[in-house]
């Protein structure tokens, strides 16, 4: 990626993770909103496609100490791993960057937490809240007054109607619809294409139309 000219005080951001979700996040970055992307860490050497690979996560303390990076963005699709790595890089002393695609629409009355990603074409409605480290994936929408908890993931093309709540660490697969006012519990998993019309308990897998609880979610 060509290095833009930025003010000397601009955030210097290392992207933690170099898999598919990382590629989507970097594609949704703009230099104006994020700062200078200095490269990525991860386990798959040289496979990011866009960012310079800086090594495994073991290089993170050095990057911070030498001033190569000031901020981190954890670009990992797994909710639990993203949460653990966020805790680790925060402990190291990194500030957390968040990503909002220039093609996303975020209401001026909405809040987007540190470390969150709002990807291409997503819509975050009036007075909605996106928690820390949450993912609002490509083409999804969360309408007015929705709450998406910390480290939750709203999958591509999923839609939350007004006032719906997706609790911390929950995952909605691609193309899920949630009717107004429903609460999805912490760590719940909602299968692709489901239509959720009633509350889903924490730690439960629910699938289908209407969504039915099929089992307990396994720890990731
Ligand atoms: C950018 C990105 O790519 S973001 C990532 C987006 N990822 C996704 O959308 C993945 C969403 N994942 C799913 O939908 C998965 O099927 C899960 C998590 C719901 C369940 O996965 P598993 O635990 O492996 O379930 P498994 O495949 O064993 O299926 C269990 C049962 O549920 C059914 N089932 C599974 N998923 C669904 C679904 N989405 N809708 C309806 N029924 C389903 C299966 O047919 C099966 O039924 P049966 O017992 O009658 O045969």
Commentary on this structure:
InterPro entries: AcTrfase_PglD-like, Hexapep, Hexapep_transf_CS, PglD_N, Trans_hexapeptide_repeat, Trimer_LpxA-like_sf. Keywords: Repeat, Transferase. Strand 23 (204-207) and strand 24 form a beta hairpin. The chain folds into 2 domains: 12-97, Rossmann fold, CATH 3.40.50; 100-212, 3 Solenoid (UDP N-Acetylglucosamine Acyltransferase, domain 1), CATH 2.160.10.10. The radius of gyration is 17 Å and the shape is globular. The strands form 4 sheets. Strands 6-9-12-15-18-21-23-24 form an 8-stranded mixed sheet, with no helix packed on it. A 6-stranded parallel sheet has the order 7-10-13-16-19-22, with no helix packed on it. A 5-stranded parallel sheet has the order 3-2-1-4-5. Helix content is 15%, strand content 29%. The protein is α/β, with parallel strands linked by helices. The protein contains 4 helices and 24 strands. It binds acetyl coenzyme *A. The site of acetyl coenzyme *A has 13 residues, from strand 23.
């Amino acid at each position: 990626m060509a290095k833009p000219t930025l003010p000397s005080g601009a955030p210097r951001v290392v992207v933690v993770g170099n898999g598919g979700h990382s590629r989507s996040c970097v594609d949704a970055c703009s230099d104006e909103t994020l700062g200078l992307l200095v490269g990525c860490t991860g386990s798959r050497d040289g496979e990011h496609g866009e960012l310079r690979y800086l090594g495994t996560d073991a290089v993170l303390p050095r990057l911070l100490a030498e001033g190569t990076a000031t901020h981190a963005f954890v670009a990992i699709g797994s909710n639990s791993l993203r949460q653990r790595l966020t805790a680790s890089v925060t402990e190291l002393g990194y500030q957390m960057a968040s990503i909002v695609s220039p093609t996303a629409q975020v209401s001026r009355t909405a809040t987007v937490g540190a470390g969150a990603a709002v990807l291409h074409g997503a819509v975050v409605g009036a007075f909605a809240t996106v928690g820390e480290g949450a993912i609002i994936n490509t083409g999804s929408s969360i309408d007015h007054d929705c709450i998406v908890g910390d480290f939750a993931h709203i999958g591509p093309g999923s839609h939350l109607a007004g006032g719906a709540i997706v609790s911390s660490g929950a995952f909605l697969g691609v193309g899920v619809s949630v009717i107004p006012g429903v609460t999805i519990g912490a760590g719940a998993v909602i299968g692709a294409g489901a239509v959720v019309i009633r509350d889903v308990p924490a730690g439960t897998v629910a699938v289908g139309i209407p969504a039915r609880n099929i089992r307990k979610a396994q720890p990731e």
